[in-house]
Design goal:
Protein name: Glyoxalase
InterPro entries: Fosfomycin_Res_Enzymes, Glyas_Bleomycin-R_OHBP_Dase, Glyas_Fos-R_dOase_dom, VOC_core
Largest sheet: 5 strands, mixed
Helix content: 10-25%
Number of helices: 2
Number of domains: 2
Pfam families: Glyoxalase (PF00903)
Organism: Vibrio coralliilyticus
Distance between the termini: 22 Å
CATH architecture of the largest domain: Roll
CATH superfamily of the largest domain: 2,3-Dihydroxybiphenyl 1,2-Dioxygenase, domain 1
Strand content: 35-45%
Number of strands: 9
Radius of gyration: 15 Å
Length: 129
């Protein structure tokens, strides 16, 4: 068994798609649009086989949760980059491009080397080895 995809609602479909293409070499499918529901989506594929579905629909409200608080339920996506050097390099690139780094790069108490940041929508992304 494997996780086939994870889905995210967004109000910035094109911006979020371009972000994951730029920083994680995602490959998008052709945009799907349902005009009756005012719904659009992309599936982004990654070299590992995992996919991320980005969805936008005007009727979906924005989250009222404070991005800096932790809460129960889904909280982050961890993306393995293969080496500490790759984590360091991408973290530095994100900082240079103006993204807020929440933690790291660092080795956690359970042995993970990681950094954590917000994507353009405020989703927590963890970069790991």
């Amino acid at each position: 068994m494997k996780i086939e995809h994870v889905a995210l609602w967004t109000k910035q479909l094109e911006l979020l798609k371009d972000f994951y293409i730029k920083y994680f070499n995602a490959t998008p499918n052709q945009k799907y649009h349902n005009s009756e529901k005012s719904f659009s989506s992309y599936f982004l594929s990654f070299s590992s086989g995992c996919r991320l579905e980005l969805m936008q629909m005007d009727s979906v409200p924005e989250s009222k949760d404070d991005l800096y608080d932790q809460f129960t339920g889904f909280i982050h996506i961890a993306i393995s980059l293969g080496s500490e050097q790759a984590v360091d390099q991408l973290t530095q690139r994100l900082v240079a491009d103006g993204y807020e780094i929440l933690s790291g790069p660092r080795t956690t108490g359970d042995g993970y080397y990681e950094s954590c940041f917000f994507d353009p929508d405020g989703n927590r992304i963890e970069l790991t080895v």
